[in-house]
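USER: Fancy drafting a protein?

ASSISTANT:
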Amino acid sequence: MKKCRRCTKTATFHVTEVHADTAVAIHLCDSCAREYLEKTDSPEQEALTDLNAKLDELIAETDDSSASCPDCGTTFHEFRESGRLGCAQDYTEFLAELLPLLENIHEDTSHAGKRPGGSVIGTVEQARLVQLRKQQQQAILEEDYESAAALRDEIAALETELLGKPASEAKGKQKPD
C-alpha cells in the first residue's frame, strides 16, 4: 500500500499530474487530498471541484459500509487503515473490495508463481510424519507398545523416503523404545 506523500497515512487518492510532458504520480490520504484539491488554482478548477465531490462520495460510501467479518469483526475500513486483515474469512467476506485492490497492486488477481519455501516436495509426507509421531506418542502413553512399534517402523520408512537414505542407515539412528 502506498503512503501519503505529505504524511504517514495510507494513500487513498492517486493523481497523475502532467507538467511539460512529464507525468508525476501523487499519492495522498483523504485529508491531504482535500487540501490539495482546495489549494490548486488552475483552469481545471471545475474538474477538481467534481473530483472533490466524488472524493466526498467515496469517503461517505466507505464510512457507510460497516459490514464486518462474522469471525473476527474486522471491517474493510479497518483493513484499509491498518493494511492487515483479521482472519482468513476476510478474503471471502471482502472479496468485492479486495479484487480491484489486488489487481491494482499486483496487476492480476490470480497467483501463478512458485510455492513458498525452499523444497516443497514431500510436504504431504512431512505432514504425515508429524501425524504418525503424535499417534506414536499417544500409543506410548496408552502403553500400547505393539502399535507404537508398528508406528515406529512406519515413521522410519517415511523418514527414509524423505531423506533418501538407505533403510539400514535410518534404522541405525532409531531410538530404542
Q: What stands out?
A: The chain is about 55% helix and 10% strand. Residues 65-108 form one domain.
